[in-house]
Amino acid sequence: MTHLTARLTALLGSDVLYRFRRDPVALTAFAILVAFVLAALLAPWLSSMNPHDPAQIDIMNSEIPPVWTSGGEAAFPLGTDVQGRDLLSAILYGLRISIVIGVFAVMVQMTLGIVIGLVSGYLGGKVDAFFMRLADIQLAMSTLMLAIIALAVFKAAVGAEFYEDMAIVMLVLVIGFAEWPQYARTIRASVLAEKKKEYVDAARVIGLSAPTIMARHILPNTLSPLLVISTVQVANAIISEAALSFLGLGMPVTMPSLGSLISSGFEYIFSGAWWITTFPSIALITLILAINLLGDWLRDVLNPRLFKG
């Protein structure tokens, strides 16, 4: 862990921070992302109601338009949805769920990918062939397709009520297991290059075990691509969760994510209640754009071939 911390600190050294402070796109994206994360963390204090609490929801307040339009009310700045929930409060709570699923799904992906990539690249031979063919098979199928199959089977097996209680856990696991090949292939490529270097030979000579060499010596030298992949994968995981929720296989309507909110208002968009889908969509697009812009900036900064001094 000390080696990983030191390597991460080196990657985020003065040169990276220097370039970050002078890049308006990166600064703007980072500010937006921080604002979204803080809004999600402080949702209970920023919201006028808890949209997950049925006792606070009044169906008589359903489909109230935004405050600046005719019929709007000051108590509901962005209007309400079909269930009478304050849309701003629902977006803040939904943002929290979407970010939590995105981050933890990436942690699952990273854990699996790092372990498989290290073992596959270091040991080589039949072990490497097995894991890489497994990765090829999984990459041949889209994340969404695998997730739909897994979640549909699970929901049918355990029932809708139990599924609602386990929705966050299942989404994290399914999205995480579906995307590990991205990390595994990247780590494997780095390991193949690193294991031929002299410091690895020296570690073998002094009697260090293979797990120790992989974890303490090779892994710290693969952090650069991992940072870039993780940033992009968080955005992809949030998009996957939103798509699954839109299809009815994600978060339930009682605990909506941004995808669930978009789905719940989609059928009413042509009947005049445009705000129910529009505002969650804007929040989701803005969040994904900010994460992707940061990922692109990290890729450029950490790629020595693109370094311009």
Automatic annotation (TrEMBL):
Q: Name one GO biological process term.
A: transmembrane transport
Mostly located where? membrane
For membrane topology, the record states: Multi-pass membrane protein
What are the UniProt keywords, alphabetically?
Cell membrane, Membrane, Transmembrane, Transmembrane helix, Transport
Gene3D superfamilies associated with the record: MetI-like
**Which parts of the sequence belong to the ABC transmembrane type-1 domain?**
95-295
Pfam families given in the database record: BPD_transp_1 (PF00528), OppC_N (PF12911)
Quote the subcellular location field of this record.
Cell membrane
Q: Which GO terms describe its cellular component?
A: plasma membrane
Q: Where is the signal peptide?
A: none
Q: Which residues cross the membrane?
A: 25-46, 97-125, 137-156, 162-180, 226-253, 273-295
**Similarity section:** Belongs to the binding-protein-dependent transport system permease family.
Name of the molecule in the record = Peptide/nickel transport system permease protein
Question: Origin organism of this chain?
Answer: Roseospira visakhapatnamensis
